[in-house]
Amino acid sequence: MAGFPWTCAQCGADNDAAARRCGTCASLAPGRARARALWVLLTLMVVAGLAVGGVLLFAGRPRPVPAASEPFPQYTTPALPTTKTVVTTADAAVPPATTTTAEKPCPGDAAHYLPGGQGTALLVGQTAKSLITICRTPDGRIFYDGQARGQAASGDTHIVLPAEADGDGFVAVNGDYRYRVGGGRLVVSAGSDVLSDEELTTVG
């Protein structure tokens, strides 16, 4: 460009090509201005490239994996402790064994009149006039059996009635008549009238 004037793009003045700046506005010559602009652009590109490369390098770096010298142990559920309840007594004496009296069968004369012909004797006793037997059948029903002493069983000398437990004894009812066995007595009553009250002695 030496020897040719150049026109300043900023102020429009003509300048000698050898001059590095416009004499009017002191702007750089076109070639110098372009070179400087390219240098600035190149510098910005390099900086941007370094920045982008740094970001990509950091993002692409694999995360460190902790070295495992041994495989992970398998998890097993711990066994829960069992609880035992221990009951202790201080100087507790061992109670003696309870003796159970074997059930006695109902006597044959009374069993003959029971439903099914058999039962368990709950009470067998006698008064001066009568033989009294209280028996329980296998299905749990209770019967009162009364028989005149020294006489053969008949409709006049023998009676069988359903009975039930009553306090310390048993009660059987036949119409207006009530037979109560208990407390060592046999009491026969009709309504509020006591017809007989005899001592009852157990047998066996």
Give the averaged pLDDT, no decimals: 77
The topology string of helices and strands comes to EEHEHEEEEEEEEE
How much strand content do the residues show? Answer: 25-35%
Shape annotation: rod-shaped
Count the domains: 2
What oligomeric arrangement do these chains adopt? single chain
Question: What attributes does this structure have?
Answer:
alpha+beta, two-stranded antiparallel ribbon, 204 residues, ten-stranded antiparallel beta sheet, rod-shaped, 2 domains
Q: How would you describe the overall organization of this protein?
A:
The protein starts with 5 loop residues before the first strand and ends with a strand. The protein has 204 residues and is α+β, with helices and mostly antiparallel strands. Helix content is 17%, strand content 31%. The chain has two domains: 6-58; 104-202, no CATH class. It contains two helices and twelve strands, in the order E-E-H-E-H-E-E-E-E-E-E-E-E-E. The model is unreliable at 72-101 (pLDDT under 50). Strand 10 and strand 11 form a beta hairpin. The strands form two sheets. Strands 3, 4, 5, 6, 7, 8, 9, 10, 11 and 12 form a ten-stranded antiparallel beta sheet that branches. Strands 1-2 form a two-stranded antiparallel ribbon.
